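Much of the work behind modern protein science is quiet bookkeeping, done one molecule at a time. Below is the pair of lines this work produces for a single protein:

***
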Amino acid sequence: MRKLPVLAALALLLAACGQMGDLEPLEGSSLPPAPYGATDPLTAEELLETDPQAAPERSVELRRESEEREDDPFDLPPEG
């Protein structure tokens, strides 16, 4: 029973352990080559940015005003 608080404290310490420095490629490797047409290769931060097509902005407004629903030919009652 005494192990539970120790394990919880250890888990919190491990969860808080993280590197807060700049990203660098591993030793002996380099960043990917520059994209076609670019003069300089992208930095690590630029490589981590998502393009708009990968994470589109969401619109929460579905309709601007109340509208009647159109008849749906596939909205059938359950068969009994």
The helical segments are 3-16, 44-48. The chain has a mean pLDDT of 80. Residues 52 and 59 are 14 Å apart (CA to CA).
